[in-house]
Amino acid sequence: MKKKVVFSICVVFILISCTKKEVALPKEPLSPTEQFVLQKLMTDKGLLRTDLTDQKELFLSESVGLWLAYLLEKDDQIRFDEQVQVIKTFFLTNNFMVWRIEGTKKASVTALIDDLRVIRVLLEAGEKWDNASYIQLGKEIGENLKRFGMVDGLFVDFVDVHSHDKANTLTMCYIMPAAFQQMAEHDLLSQEQMEQQITILQNTPVSKEGFFPKYYDLFSKSYVFDEELHMIEQLYTAYHLASIKKDTTPFKNWLFDLLARDDKLYGRYDAETNKPAVKYESPAVYAMAARYMLELNEQQMAQQFLDKMTALKDDPKTGYVDYYTKSTHIFDNLLPLLAEREVNNAHNDELE
């Protein structure tokens, strides 16, 4: 009789263990783009390659942040936790996140936009999943960035992880209000410090055509426009402005005028002539345009940009890869993944 009881307990324990394992599995089904990232661009150590070429492998903190942001939107804590371990194992140096790893060689500087993205996502994930370790890591990176990555109370583009030498510029598209708000909520920034960062963004001038400056120079306290406009940077700036309810109508009109004229968006434009400076379209540009539209609560336009984005796929069953050259870039896969998920989540929220 005792043997039967023991056997029954073991069976129940096994069933419970199996059930827990099933619950813990990463979210399914995977999209073709996500499968491509996991199967082709992710190494067995969880690092994300930038491309598929045979050159020395390059891994970016940008990729880590975008992947984490996507997994948070997807509610996939298992893979999220795996990528947090990648940060701890490979990217952290003296509590700084280096901006790139080439082969096994770490860069000596950070990148503000990537740091802020990771901090924001870690803090939000910690709250969402009640995980104190995510919050702790986000605070450690944030505290270090605040201590060494500021000039006259403003964050700057980069800081050297060893010498603590800093940039004297603040690129406009790096100013991420959502990250500053999270940092303030977790006592990493005072209200005054948060507002100081956001004020630089709020006060950004707009050209007569409608586009934004590239950076703010801390020495001259002036905004500087570029001769060539990177559409990703312009869209990020518009997106961040829209996130704090700043009117971006001049930029939106400029964007729509370009789209109406060419029936597409190019990767770069000449600031003086308004003509395309390159011949290519970018999935990431359309993804960022969709995210910007979502911030403006224009879901129909967001979907239209997503449609243009997916039309760039040579094969709908894989990621964004050039059919002939087989070239790709992880940025052109991760940002589309994030945009698709955010638009999908917004649509589902609207239906509820």
UniProtKB/TrEMBL annotation:
Which Pfam families is this protein grouped with? Glyco_hydro_8 (PF01270)
| Record keywords | Glycosidase, Hydrolase
The molecular function GO annotations come to: hydrolase activity, hydrolyzing O-glycosyl compounds
Q: Provide the leader sequence positions.
A: none
Q: Which InterPro entries match?
A: 6-hairpin_glycosidase_sf, 6hp_glycosidase-like_sf, Glyco_hydro_8
- Which superkingdom heads the taxonomic lineage of this protein's source? Bacteria
Which positions are tagged coiled coil? none
Example GO biological process:
carbohydrate metabolic process
* The family this protein is said to belong to: Belongs to the glycosyl hydrolase 8 (cellulase D) family.
Q: What is this protein called?
A: Glycosyl hydrolase lipoprotein
